[in-house]
Fold each of these.
Amino acid sequence: MNTQTQNAHISKAMKVIPQVLQAKGLDTPREWLATERDGRRYLFGVMDVNRALQSTGSLKPYYELNLTHDMSTLLGGVPVLLGNHNGLRYCVPLSAPPRLPANAPLPDSIPFDTLPLGVGFSGPISARPEVFISGLVTGAQGSGKSTFLKALAFSARAHGWQLYLADALGHTFNPDAWNTVAAAPVAQTGGELMALVELLGAELNRRSTLYRAVARDGLMPGNLDEYNREAARCGGERLSHFVFIADESNTFFKTKGVADALEPVIQHGRKWGLVAVMAAHSWRADDASRSLTMLFHTRACFRVDDDTTGAVALGSRLWGKKAMGLNRPGRGLLAFGGQRPQLFQSHSLDKERERALLVSARNGERPAPMISAVEKRALTVARANGGRMTRAMLTAAGFQEREARGLMEQFVARGWARQDNMQARATVLTEAAPHE
């Protein structure tokens, strides 16, 4: 339904709904709201509940099914819904329900230091580490959980992040192949995971020392971005994020001490640049302590076999039951920080790209970086100017001043460019810069 048609429906609904209510001797809406939610537009006729009660003594007449039926008939079959969650109101959908794609392959282009997650009703969904923070993932066999985890792992390596993996079954992350990709051997037992957690703890301690070294007046950087700015100022080591992904997590929890060892690492790892993701086919209250599961900021729930698993993952038995009805691989419910879950189609890593990642790792190479369309334009500008890049060049090519400055800093951070010794505010492309 185009904008002109929607406006026509709005005008007609604002006449029809009061007309039907007045014919029954009922009060009419006190205000009208046109809004968008989950990729759909709606018109709400908001009633004044107190005034409605005064005129009829009861709200029961407003809930009669024949009212909304008559409204819908006069609107040519457009449905009229009645809601009272936020007060008595009549709702008219102005657009058809949006559709999600049947599948969502991992895109070739993604902004730097961003995790691509999938596609929602409003378009692609991605999150920077400071938004994603840590993730709890669940889904039954064949639900798409494993391909989602592989897409996260691939994205991390494409950004140059260190990757730590655990997989009790060795199926999602086969050690024979993924050991060449990860920063340490894939953990398959509780004891191996404990050793991996020690490595993560050691890296956190190392980063703590580096943070203290760049502290100004004793004030340590609050996060990784702040640290890297200070490190660039005083010549310190630049740090990237690092990722810990564990599949079949509840199997590891059977080993005494695993959950207790993981909790402080996940709790405190954010400020040092750690992104933690733990996944399992099912979650129960006795699989892991509530204090551990509450540390996971982002929740992704694919089709589950019981509502308990979905309820633990999404914090609601109602949403847990909805997760049981998901019927397409990769179709899931995604929630950030306790927000209302949204339906999405998760990104998946196809076999060819996974194979290319594993082969390049065996050859000691990193996977080709994922380059955004904006970055491609900036590379074109630089190469047209002999490999040099300045803010003036970028703004002349149509970039905003702030965008140009950010791109230059980003290219240096990724090793694609270095400061021009002859011109302090210019950069020169390095051999590591992609040829796209």
Amino acid sequence: MAHPVIQFQILSKEPDATAGFYSDLFGWTVRADNPMGYRQIDTGSKEGIPGGIWPAPPQSPNFVQLFVAVDDVAGSVKKAEELGAKLLIPPTTLPEGDEMAVLLDPQGMSFAMTRPAKR
């Protein structure tokens, strides 16, 4: 399997204000009508990748995170850790069935690996 970047996430200390800014600037539609209240972004285009907005943890700055598709989240986490990554959120199944884990790469950049649920 290739490992494409399939989603972006903006983590913000003020997610509602961030959603308002990008909605006003680009005309994006932001919805939070899902089990976790995740602010899903619809850019209005079939080009590009989907994204969302989530509250940034209190100890971190605002940042953008990429989600990379993998076949085996746990196996990919193990390989990443062997290569020097630090696990932040262990493999977790989300309410809609996607599986994900969040790590820091050896340089301290946050990224996620995900296995989308079959829909």
Amino acid sequence: MIDITKQVEYWISGSEEELSVAFTLHKSMKIRQSLFFAHLTLEKMLKAIICQKTDNIAPRIHNLIRLSEIADLI
């Protein structure tokens, strides 16, 4: 059986790490790279929300709009 709490913690932890990298890259004026890590930040946080709301693992997709729909945010 899947431990959803651990899944949520995994996605939140990863999201926080990606956000830190995005800020560091932004300060270094590496804007495109910063935006990539910002995308990862949002993706991982959406997956944490999906796990919480559905009590299941998050889908293996990267489309932020689709993840937002699955998370019932839009």
